[in-house]
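Researcher: I'd like a structural prediction for the single chain below. Treat it as a standalone chain; there are no partners to consider.
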Amino acid sequence: MTRGSDDPLAEMRQQVKDLISQRYRTVEEFCWANDLSKATVSNFLAGRKDFQVSTLQKVANGLKKKLHISLR
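Model: Treating it as a single chain, here is the predicted structure.
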């Protein structure tokens, strides 16, 4: 993620959007494949920031990445 960004999840959101457009026919298909609700993913993609760590972990798993959380 870009340092100094006002939205540390922006890069992750963009990666999810890119993955969906490249590998899935719909957002719903991505959700089904990764055990996520469509409402949760839609909120995430819309820029809302109130997510449980477990949700972000599932999104990261969908991207085939590890979630790393740090405090600065």
